[in-house]
Design brief:
- By secondary structure, this protein is α/β, with parallel strands linked by helices.
- It has one domain (about 30-135): Immunoglobulin-like.
- It contains 1 helix and 8 strands.
- The strands form 2 sheets. The protein has a 4-stranded mixed sheet, with no helix packed on it. Strands 2-8-7-4 form a 4-stranded mixed sheet, with no helix packed on it.
- It is globular, with a radius of gyration of 20 Å.
- The N and C termini lie far apart (about 55 Å).
Length: about 140
């Protein structure tokens, strides 16, 4: 019978623990990427929005500051690579929100060059508006 050292068993248990955390943390998160469909969620539900971006252009997606913080909490934003960044592959900007209270609201996400001061008058920006219903 093969003997295992304590550190091997500990390492294996820690590895399984990390995998279970990873699986559980993403289990209940639904990710949306189409603003043409209404997002229907329940109170205390966490959901994500991800939008395609090309970081080499200088543009990135930003949540407009006036989200309804009574109904929603903006939990995080991160960039996720889809390929080799050195070859200028696109990626996605990922936003995670938590529904706090029942109601209807919107989330506006703008595709802008953040260092530019006058993004409202820039004809090249895109705006995605997500309609949210919290039941």
């Amino acid at each position: 019978m093969k003997q295992y050292h304590n550190w091997q068993v500990s390492f294996y248990c820690f590895y399984i623990f990390l995998i279970s955390l990873s699986c559980n943390s993403q289990k209940n998160i639904v990710i949306y990427n189409d603003s043409n469909n209404k997002i229907n969620i329940t109170e205390n539900q966490t959901f994500g929005i991800e939008l395609l971006t090309h970081p080499g252009t200088g543009y990135k997606w930003e949540v407009k500051d006036d989200i309804n913080t009574v109904l929603l909490k903006n939990i995080k934003k991160e960039y996720r690579e889809l390929g080799d960044e050195q070859l200028d592959f696109p990626g996605v900007d990922y936003f995670e929100f938590k529904a706090i209270k029942k109601g209807n609201t919107t989330i506006e996400i703008w595709y802008i060059r953040p260092w530019k001061k006058d993004n409202k008058n820039n004809p090249n920006i895109r705006i995605e508006t997500f309609y949210i219903e919290i039941k």
